[in-house]
Amino acid sequence: MDAAAPAIELDGLRRRYGHRLALDGVTLTLAAGQTLVVFGPNGAGKSTLLRVLATLLRPTDGVVRILGEALPERAWIVRGHLGLLTHEPLLYGDLSARENLRFHARLRGVPLQRVDDLLAEVKLERRADEPVHTYSRGMLQRTAACRAVLHDPALLLLDEPRANLDPGAIELLEPLVGRQSGRSRVVTSHDPAAGLAEADLVLGLKDGRTAFLAAPDELTPGAITDLYRT
């Protein structure tokens, strides 16, 4: 793993489902420590892009490098340096937050003290030993964020991480998965104001193709809203 390498390098990325191209020729470079925010309507290819970056889908064509490592050939190395946070919390419902996080800590060789530290950081200590199926949406997301950063990943992949969260939960998550974390990040969003505020690079996808790729201050007025027009 090359610490000086870009977080992400894509050159002509394509991902095909049968005859349909979900991603068609996406090319970009994201420097280490930067945040890429991805906008686009449902079906634009945002989730497919995240799944390719997460090594859950193989690219059909093109070059994909994560932290200097080529996919899919070096996916087994890349996976240990990724943190994934999606709409699904990826937690066992009958286990408590503490049990879920300790399970993942043992899988990754992370000291168990890290679990207690994270639970305290997101203010879940009092209910950390209750089954997560009893949790509110905000509590589930806080637990899932702890899971995503448990192993101190270099790159975070975040699918609308603040959706349906109240301001208090959002504030608690910022040090873990926000810009304050200092990590390289890919964030999908439907919120132009919030997305632009945290982006170093903005990607607009429509029908799997790049509609725009620019720094936030380089975007033309209406560029994001135009994505959502049929």
Automatic annotation (TrEMBL):
GO terms for molecular function: ATP binding; ATP hydrolysis activity. Signal peptide: none annotated. Gene3D superfamilies: P-loop containing nucleotide triphosphate hydrolases. Keywords: ATP-binding, Nucleotide-binding, Transport. SUPFAM superfamilies: P-loop containing nucleoside triphosphate hydrolases. It holds the Pfam family ABC_tran. Residues 8-227 form the ABC transporter domain. PANTHER family: ABC TRANSPORTER ATP-BINDING PROTEIN ALBC-RELATED (PTHR42939:SF1). This is ABC transporter ATP-binding protein NosF. It comes from Paraconexibacter sp. AEG42_29. The lineage of its organism: Bacteria, Bacillati, Actinomycetota, Thermoleophilia, Solirubrobacterales.
